[in-house]
Amino acid sequence: MHIMDKKVKGITCNSKKVKDGFVFVAIKGESIDGNDFIEESIENGAVIIYTNKDISDDRVSIIKVDDPRKELAKLLNEFYGYPTEDLTIIGVTGTNGKTTTTHIIESIFRKAGYKTALIGTLGVKINDQYESSVLTTSDSTLTTPDSEKLYGLFNEFKERNVEVVIMEVSSHGLKFHRTYGVDFDVAIHTNIEIDHLDFHKSFENYLKTKKMLFDSLRRNRLAILNIDDENATKLLEGNRNVLTLTYGLNSKSSITASSINVQETLDFTVCLQRNISTYNGKVYEPQEFNISMNLSGLYNVYNSLAAISCALYFGIDIDVIQKALKEVKDISRRFEKIYEKDYTVIDDFCHNPASYQAVLDTVRGLNYNKLIIVNAIRGNRGIEINNHNASVFSAWHHTLNYPRVILSLSKDVVEEKDGVKNEELEQYRNMFNNNSIEYEVYENLNDSIKQSIKYASKGDIILLLGPQGMNKGKETFYRLLKDS
């Protein structure tokens, strides 16, 4: 790759990674401005600098651009030879369900014999193995890796003969243009609920950001929408270029489900309500077939329908889909049963009202004597989201027969950026006090889970809920159990 007659040996936005012949793209982040490191990048060997500021320097070529983040992705795409054009890329976005849906899709494609890669909250998986060396510690906290890492991954996937890439596409990833230039073959919408208001400032902005994935689809690429979500059709406003496939429990959807049995496991009938055309011209006529899974929860009917819709579009046989879904096991921190002996312990990455609602609704259908909830409060995300989360607890308290509630600030496990502020804790205190809900508050996750174990008896369920503050809940529980 050459730019301005200069041979480019690498592209980065990290001045410390710059070597001789590199391009440095100066990006202003939330806390660090890359423009402050231009001098360092030049000293390290940068030959071209991209920036959105008026800067001149006789030692290097400086190119001014409107949006350095977009420019970084664009340059990387060209540098690696437009790798996504040679891969089938399936992107899944939504407030909840991205991780589970991508894992179900990956399971189906693997069962069908494809070589696959998976990118998301749980890391990077190539075929059957998670690649622990692929992402750095900082990258692993991102649902959608930054464009520098992402395009490097796409290039590696090509070299390793991967055919299908299934990836979670977060609103942060879209807003920061991490996926700019990615040639998506399919974009899937799970749902859009209240979340990330601290970042997007309004629900309208959040929705508009999610829409960016669907706006990026080229002509005749496929959009798969959850038609039960009132926001679904807004994602395609002004976009007449794409094919559309809808799923849900709504009778208007292309693919729906009936005879749903949601207990310890999941059984339902998939109904194709009209002809489904595949990418290569094959047609599935209206029909029904049964699905049996080892997951639970109504929300997993939706996640499965999204995955099934995608698989049918690629012409995967129905018997392969059935076998693959039967073999899907608990996914880490997605209503994951981590202990089943005298009592049961379930771990879930609840982080917004819709996810709490889904988990508590699923628990209602389980058999238990007493319910003990350990909830790690979502720290440093603002009072609004925590007020909504607390209100869901309050609404379900009576229905779930007055569970014991333990609130954790998780100070022993979270980084400073995820610390719970006093005003966030107060949202729970006020909500619970106003509704006469008894609760306990512990500063550390260790003490919170230790107390839940003391309360647990035969036939009880312990719920470990919360995002970052509960990420080490499983290992904390195992350690406490071993020490007891």
UniProtKB/TrEMBL annotation:
Gene Ontology biological process terms, A to Z: cell division; cell wall organization; peptidoglycan biosynthetic process; regulation of cell shape
Top-rank taxon: Bacteria
Pfam family, one: Mur_ligase
Residues of the Mur ligase C-terminal domain: 333-466
Keywords: Cell cycle, Cell division, Cell shape, Cell wall biogenesis/degradation, Ligase, Peptidoglycan synthesis
Pathway membership: Cell wall biogenesis; peptidoglycan biosynthesis
Keyword ATP-binding recorded: no
Subcellular location: Cytoplasm
Cellular component GO terms, alphabetical: cytoplasm
Membrane-spanning parts: none
Entry-linked PANTHER family: MUR LIGASE FAMILY MEMBER, UDP-N-ACETYLMURAMOYL-L-ALANYL-D-GLUTAMATE--2,6-DIAMINOPIMELATE LIGASE MURE HOMOLOG, CHLOROPLASTIC
Family of the protein in this entry: Belongs to the MurCDEF family. MurE subfamily.
NCBIfam families documented for this protein: murE (TIGR01085)
Entry protein name: Mur ligase family protein
Organism: Anaeromonas frigoriresistens
